[in-house]
Design goal:
Blueprint: E1 3-7, H1 12-23, E2 27-31, H2 35-40, H3 47-56, E3 61-64, H4 71-80, E4 85-90, H5 97-102, H6 104-125, E5 130-136, E6 150-151, E7 156-157, H7 181-200, E8 204-209, E9 211-213, H8 225-235, E10 239-242, E11 249-254, H9 255-267, E12 273-277, E13 284-286, H10 287-298, E14 304-307, E15 317-318, H11 323-328, H12 338-356
Parallel strand pairs: 1-2, 1-4, 2-3, 4-5, 5-8, 8-12, 9-11, 10-14, 11-15
Antiparallel strand pairs: 6-7, 11-13
Amino acid sequence: MPVAIVTGSGGLVGSESVAHFVEAGYDVVGLDNDMRATFFGESASTSAQTARLERAYPSEFQHVDLDIRAAEAIDDLFASHARRLELVIHAAAQPSHDWAASDPSTDFSVNALGTLNLLEATRKHAPTATFIFCSTNKVYGDRPNLLPLRDIGTRLELPSGHRYARGIDATMSIDTCLHSLFGVSKAAADLLVQEYGRYFALPTVCFRGGCLTGPNHAGARLHGFLSYLMRCTVTGEPYTVFGYSGKQVRDNIHSADLVAAFAAFHADPRPGAVYNIGGGRGSNCSVLEAIELCEGIADRRLDWRLDPTPRVGDHRWWISDLDPFRADYPGWDLRYGIEETLREIYEQNLENWSVAV
């Protein structure tokens, strides 16, 4: 059987990737040292997801407790699977721009140095393996905030004739703007992935995601928008909206749709590819709109307040243009919208959240 290595295998995207590629006939090696619990507390731990995967796939899935910053150990692991290694999905990260400011060294070492270690191990031991990197729209810094947005009631929106009205594509500059430290560390990793594709001709891709979501997300205050919002609605935990009167817009892509995009790229890879990926025009909402949906699905009010100060570098509006990826991979499209995703998050987590209360 072919082998896939998935970093961050206990997280939202990682666990979805494990399940998808095990079902597709791969032996999957998952790297996860549960640093999410270190970043965001025990309620955000990935250990339960890892245990679930081990129960579900006792022979096809191997969990390895390994830090991606450990270059020698990473090299040894890749060498041991070199003969059958066909796919690397890099979903491990420090994912919060708020947390990054509290410990820039850890943020950069995980996001940038860890990515370099994985790329170099791939180049040395499996240069034909597809390398898929979960990048972020935060590589664009706050440049989207320069867009001529209009207040249309519950959200900010672009005029219909604007060049980015269908969504932002990868032609937007990442230069001469304010980035969070998280955005900088991910941009460094993003450029490394592109360079290994172009310089060494490795089949690599950067998926610059909007909000990634789904029922397996261990949402926390600093990361995991829809999951944490629904959790607060169910449990009664207070929720704070930061800035823009709650009218800031996010597109949200279900982890199953994202991993389907991974599979499409892996079936026909190319070197140094870059795509903005998210819910696009088919799956997006403002914070106010998401609150209303959560309250309707959970049938209870959310205890929330507005802090008028936005987070540093936070976007007023982000919708991904999915047309470039659809043009290259016409067999792929979204299957989930916002309401379907929120309802799935609610139904699959209600029992655990109710017990926590």
